[in-house]
Amino acid sequence: MFVNCRRVLRPRLYPPSLQRPFRSLLYVGRAAAQPVRALSTSTGVNSASGSGGVPALIDLNRGHPKTEMIIADSLRPFLSAGNTSVPGTVQTTNAMRLAVTNFLRSMYGEPHFDFDRVRLVQSGARDAFELLIREFTKPNDAVVCDEYTYFHCMQLFARYSLQPIPVRSGATDSSFDLKWLDATLQQLSAAKTRVPLAYVMPSFSNPTSLSLDASARRALIGLGTKYRFGIVADEIFHHLRFSGKPDPSITHPVLFPQTSPPPAPAPKSSAANSDATVPFVLSISSLSKTIAAEFGRDWTLGWCVHGPTNSVAVTQRLDRALNSSLPAGAAGKPIPAVSDTPPIHNPALLQAFESGAVNDQVRTLCSVLGHRAAVFTEAFRAEVARLPASSPAAKGLTITPVDGGYFSWIQLPPGMTDTQVVPVAESRFGVRVAPGSKSYSGPVRPLASNYVRICFAIYSDAELIAGAKRLVAAVQACCVA
Question: By 3-state DSSP, what share of the chain in percent is helix, strand and coil, each rounded to 5?
């Protein structure tokens, strides 16, 4: 039964502080009112002791880039130019679309990226996914997702009374139990439970940093066609691979059958999914993990790419959904869409794309992130190796190697939970980490809270080494408590 493979979530409301106005997602973001901040090389972390003898906090929980992050030399002049945004036109919007298309082609070495399938999105993947939820789902629908998924999506599932279908993957490998998913979808179809959407982060996912290989991506697309659900792929970290060529984007034609006409509508009597559910593939990404949003709203550009087999009708429906609005403000009054209004245009960002500076930024960032991931991993393992052999942490505390993205996934010793470690790590040892259970979408089980996530993207080598030592010490303290 479906009830045995999911967790029932209580609906929760967003507080007014989290409700903000939205504009049309299909355009470049509106410029920030303040000028760009001066670039700094400081990490913003005080190494001195805090109050009560606790070391100054190293926040390895934060996953948002800051203005202090590494910036490629070729990009600095564009960021330092200040607020250069001007009223946009259809021509400037198409120029930016072409620049993003060329960026995707050059970064991935994949000429399949087609101008006609690329759209600009003003906000992040989370907001775009919420608009798609509003368009395609109904209360009590089921949504396919990773067992450990982006924690904001858990909030969306609760807000819209959706039930997650948690696809289990290995905690330390990139396996994805698609055989289980196929069997589960068959049961749901027989029970007439609608499954209109799947949300996946196929490359360097948050929180695990694991990726789906090409065969898993192809199989997931096949299940989407078979059971007629849309796949929303959050590829925010796809281009942040430390070395080598990235895995193919989920919209790459190589993942689709060579001859794949849009599937015919299923007979209404065969499954609940015949009730206005449609198969599609949509990739969403942005610059939010590449250039800090603190540089201004006019630098928070994103994009989406339609799958090659999306029908014209589905493409138009997706575009309309992404061009709608989300409620904002305590009164819940919607912000009207601005599809008929020219977007604000940032010439500096367009020039940064066309000059290759954004490509330079990605390459520079990947090099630095790869180094920082290695520094933290080596320091963490070295610290674990120093523990007494009799300590449970000596063998049970492990870290998963990563090839890209921002995060490392750490498994705690058997029987230890994140609710034990996280408060001790922060209050006694001055290091903040994210509890793995915060991102868990599956049924309650013992291992659900046996992990923590850290972000290595922001700090210097010395701070990462100190953070690794503090975290291992906190786990050891929990072992002997």
Answer: 40, 15, 45
Same domain as 178, residue 263 = yes
Specify whether 305 is located in the same domain as 432. no
For residue 38, is it within any domain? Answer: no
Number of domains in the chain: 2
Cα separation, 424 vs 466, in Å, equals 16
Q: What is the DSSP letter of 447?
A: G
Q: Which residues contact 106 (CB under 8 A, 6 or more apart)?
A: 359
Burial of 107 (0-12, 13-18, 19+ CB in 10 A): middle
Are both 117 and 252 inside the same structural domain? yes
Prediction pTM value:
0.82
276 and 152 in one domain?
yes
What's the angle, vertex CA 129, arms to CA 221 and CA 405, rounded to 5? 75
Structural element, H or E, at residue 284 = strand 280-286
Closest by Cα among 366, 316, 401 to 358: 366
The predicted-structure confidence for 108-150, as pLDDT tens digits, reads as follows 777 778 888 998 876 667 788 888 999 999 999 999 999 898 9
Q: Which domain holds residue 297?
A: 75-356
For residues 92 and 98, what is the distance between their CA atoms, to the nearest angstrom?
Answer: 10
27 located within any domain = no
Task: Tell me the three state secondary structure of residue 422.
Answer: helix
